[in-house]
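Lab notebook, bench 4. The sequencing result for the construct came back, and we need a structural model before the next group meeting so we can plan mutations. Quick request posted to the team channel:

Model the 3D structure of this chain.
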Amino acid sequence: MQSSSLVMFEEEFKLTVNVLEKLLGDSNAKVVFLVDKDGQLIASSGETSDIDTTSLASLTAGNIAATGGLAKLLGEKEFSILFHEGENDNIHISIIGDRVILVVIFDQRSSVGLVRLRVKKASEEINNIIQRMLQRTEKHADKEEALLSEISDEDIDKLFH
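Done. Here's the predicted structure in token form:
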């Protein structure tokens, strides 16, 4: 994961939720989650009431980390898409922009092909939102740095005396 942190503003959060809701409907999924690589849930859509979202987010990040270790053993950078098939539910996991993890849980109402197709479009949209967040974060950091550079030692002394 890249080192600069993500700061999600309300506008980007709403855009992200809209993308997740569209993906949920377009893919006939049960649940869609967006998780950071540290295991923190960013946003979700769908039937989340029966799911421990905190555990799911954490375990998903752990799954990505473990799979990353396997990839390195095989000389790969990472496996950007994972699929787990269960008796009743399936999980499609993909890494977006080397920063976040998109999780789609679906059952027999959908298919892995449909989910992959819809995830591809949603991933592009989420990646665009992430790039926008990074630019906004950078602008805010530049403004803070400029403000701090205007404060002199004399100003600090006056503040504390």
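The chain has a mean pLDDT of 87.
Will bring this to the meeting.
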